[in-house]
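User: Please predict the structure of the protein below. I'd like the answer in structure-token form so I can feed it into my own downstream comparison script.

Assistant: Understood. Taking the following sequence of 405 residues as input:
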Amino acid sequence: MVSVIIPTYNRANVLGRSIKSVLNQSYQDFELIIVDDGSTDNTCRLVDTFNDPRIRYLRNNQRLGANGARNIGIQNSKGDYIAFQDSDDVWRSDKLEKQVNMFHEMEDIDIIYSRYMRHWQNGKNELVPNKNYTKNMLQEEIAHTLAESNVIGTPTMIARKKCFCECGMFDLELKRFQDWEINIVFVQHYKYGFIDDMLVDAYESDDSISNISNIMDSIASIVKKHQKFFEAQGTIDMQFTMLAYLAMDEKKLKDLQEILGETLFFRSIYSYCENYSRRLEVIKKNYNFMKEWISRGKNNYIVNSFLHKYEDNSIALYGLGDIGKLFLNVLTGENKKKVKYVIDRKISSYNKYMILSPKVLTDKELGGIKCIIIAAVAYEDEIRRELELLTTIPIISVYDVISEI
């Protein structure tokens, strides 16, 4: 039997859809444990309308958060396997069947997961993990992949109950990435199976009980807690570099030092400086090459030809330094109309285009944009990361344009 756990808080407007996707599974040997984290809406009445003996409704008297609710569900479960669903997500009808069959076929496997489709509020869809992650990376090499990034969505997971009994449950101290942390624990003890299929539709919503924004604090806590794991996988410096970048970007260096402690904090700063100086050498070469290439008159036609596929007012250019200005200046009149915005910190530096400040940029302002071109080559990685948190619009750099040509 599978114990399916749904944590929920004031999600009666979407919870019914999630419950139905579990009840409609082609594999029917399960119990469904709904853990209400103190809802004040009609969640209880909604659950009662299903009148299904497999549903067990538990209510927390005080808020524990999404992972506290998941832990309550695990503690009250009766199944051999534990699976998780979120109150605003939908399972494909054959999810449990495919996963249970894999357990039967490969008895040495303890945890199974799949890809899922994330549906953003802006209407964009994103496959997670994307197809750049091969099946080998997501199964045989899953430890190293997890040491680099979080690729396992909780609603895609199913695990033998012994994993939680032997290694513990979700970390309540973390404000984000509890799913990443528990899989870092599990991957050091158990074998993973991966189904290369999209079995879950995940819908983003503002009031989801796991929607908390403390990214840097949570990553820092995970890296400190599992330092030996990251070192063994050779990714510790990459994580330290990213943490230092996040702390500088958010002016949270003191917070980072408090979480990591002095020794790891200075190691993080050192990793950032070392990697940044290496990268600057590459940037300098690319910068000089791009500036020279765009300046050649014979290449103007090539740049303009590249943009023929875009419509008027459908491109945003990020960065108005030397490269950005050169890029704009070589555009023909027809292609100039395709640039709707220029995004730059100096919002008064170029009056020919509407300038947006990156500090107040929102996804709403980017409505209708089909592509963002980064011309600020020295900060391309940082800008790309910022934009990817904000939007799913395709992001390329001027260097990408030249490379493709």
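That's the full token string. The first helix runs from residue 12 to 23.
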